[in-house]
Design goal:
- By secondary structure, the chain is of the alpha/beta class.
- It folds into two domains: 2-27 and 99-228, HAD superfamily/HAD-like (Rossmann fold); 29-97.
- The chain is 43% helix and 12% strand.
- The chain has helices spanning 28-43, 48-56, 66-74, 80-97, 104-113, 126-135, 148-151, 159-168, 182-191, 225-228; strands spanning 2-3, 16-19, 117-121, 144-146, 175-179, 195-199, 217-219.
- It has a seven-stranded mixed β-sheet with strand order 1-7-6-5-2-3-4, with helices on both faces.
- Helix 6 (126-135) links the parallel strand 3 (117-121) and strand 4 (144-146).
- Helix 1 crosses helix 2 and helix 2 (48-56) crosses helix 3 (66-74).
- The chain starts with a strand and ends with a helix.
Length: 232
């Protein structure tokens, strides 16, 4: 764990923690890769990398089933029946592959028992976010969940973090925000006036795209957050 001077020695001030979901609580990238491989195996053509790119560059959003439709059309094998089967295969395989990072459940349980509030801020849909939280068995620990669906906002808008603070009824400077993405998670949380923690273990953003952003803390496992907020 690395620390800047911004929040050193201030653990006692924290009254809440805000977490990102994908690649912070669980390895969503690996789950998506596994699901794409299942689809490619099903149809017997193309590559998982090409399907992943179809999702990433889809104008309908990175989780839209229309990415699979575009992928099948590119391979000249699209038909409604195959499309529906591929979508269901993708959804099931992705959910099965989502596993919480080591220590996530135990850490959130300890934070909850200590009386600190826990919020989540994510760009996932409300439906997907709730499904994933229930799947990794931590939904019960959250005091608020902020998504584009229920807030009308999207990261990297710092207003999303301020909205979460309002729902938690905690001042921003009393919140420790943790996320894997320096651009989408760390910078807007800093702009909102929160102490920030970079989940390096889940980071998939190449350094050249990080725009020189530095978090107050960097951690190599989720449980490291306990030392930062004074619970270990």
């Amino acid at each position: 764990m690395t620390i800047t001077n911004a929040c050193r020695g201030e653990a006692q001030r924290f009254r809440a923690v805000i977490v990102d979901l994908d690649n912070t609580l669980y390895d969503f990238g690996a789950a998506k890769e596994a699901a794409c491989q299942k689809v490619v195996t099903l149809i017997g053509k193309g590559s998982a990398d090409d399907l992943i790119r179809a999702f990433l560059f889809s104008p309908y959003g990175v989780e839209s089933p229309k990415a699979i439709q575009s992928f099948l059309e590119e391979l000249n094998i699209y038909n409604p029946e195959l499309f529906n089967t591929a979508v269901q295969t993708y959804i099931q395989a992705k959910m099965e592959a989502i596993k919480a990072y080591p220590g996530v459940y135990e850490t959130l349980l300890q934070i909850h028992k200590a009386g600190l509030k826990v919020g989540a801020v994510t760009n996932a849909s409300n439906e997907h976010a709730k499904e994933r939280l229930i799947h990794i068995q931590v939904a019960e620990f959250l005091d608020c969940l902020v998504t584009p669906d229920n807030s009308g906002l999207k990261k990297p808008d710092s207003a999303m973090f301020l909205h979460a603070a309002s729902l938690l009824r905690v001042q921003p400077h009393q919140i420790c925000a943790i996320g894997d993405n320096l651009v989408n998670d760390i910078r807007p949380a800093q702009e909102a006036g929160m102490c920030t923690v970079h989940a390096e273990y889940g980071n998939r953003l190449p350094l050249k795209y990080s725009e020189g952003i530095t978090a107050d803390f960097s951690i190599s496992s989720f449980s490291d957050i306990l030392s930062i907020i004074g619970l270990r």
